[in-house]
Amino acid sequence: MLGGGRVSVGSMINSLEAHALLRTGNMSPYFDGLLEQYAHKDHSQVYLSVKPSVQYVLYNSLLEGGLFSKDVYVEPEVREAAGNLERPPMRRLMADVELSAVLSLKRFAVTFSQKFNTKDFEDLPAQHVGNISIYLGF
User: Fold this and answer.
1) 24 forms bridges with which residues in the sheet?
2) What is the DSSP annotation of 50-69?
3) Which of 132, 121, 119, 117 is nearest to 53 (CA)?
């Protein structure tokens, strides 16, 4: 189990985040290096990880408009779903959890991850993302 945090300050996103990382299974130590987590030359690995996090968003230009302009295009369907407001009310306190599975056969690895998060806007659905990655160590 590991814990961490992140502070983002800039013109695009300003936020504070705290997270935990829980890993279980047959794996290399976390601090042996990034590539060792996925492709170890001497042994195979199989493990699961869970990374819950909470984030407080002060400003997000992708959702609120630019630094010097508050104009942001909102699809008509989205505007209608939010009660015809100019812009739906944005949530400042966000939470998410990322679930991952890793299968590593010596220098080859496949990972699957899925991230579930809270809604960015009050009356609109959340967007969940996932990916599959393939690693080859050499």
Assistant:
1) 48
2) EEEEEEEEEEEHHHH--SS-
3) 117
> In 98-127, which positions are buried (b, 16+ CB within 10 angstroms) versus exposed (e)?
bebebebeeeebebebebebeebbeeeeee
Residues 12-39 pLDDT 10s: 889 999 999 999 998 877 777 666 666 6
Question: Which tokens belong to 109?
Answer: 């690895």
- Locate the domains of the chain by residue range: 2-136
Q: What are phi and psi of 38, to 5 degrees?
A: -115, -35
Domain covering 2-136 assigned CATH 3.40.50.10140 in the classification? no
Contact between residue 61 and residue 11 where contact means Cβ atoms under 8 Å apart:
yes
pTM: 0.74
Beta bridge partners of 19: 4, 53
Tokens representing residue 64 in the block:
């609120």
* Angstrom distance (rounded) from CA 81 to CA 102: 39
- Which of 113, 111, 132 lies closest to 45, judged by CA? 111
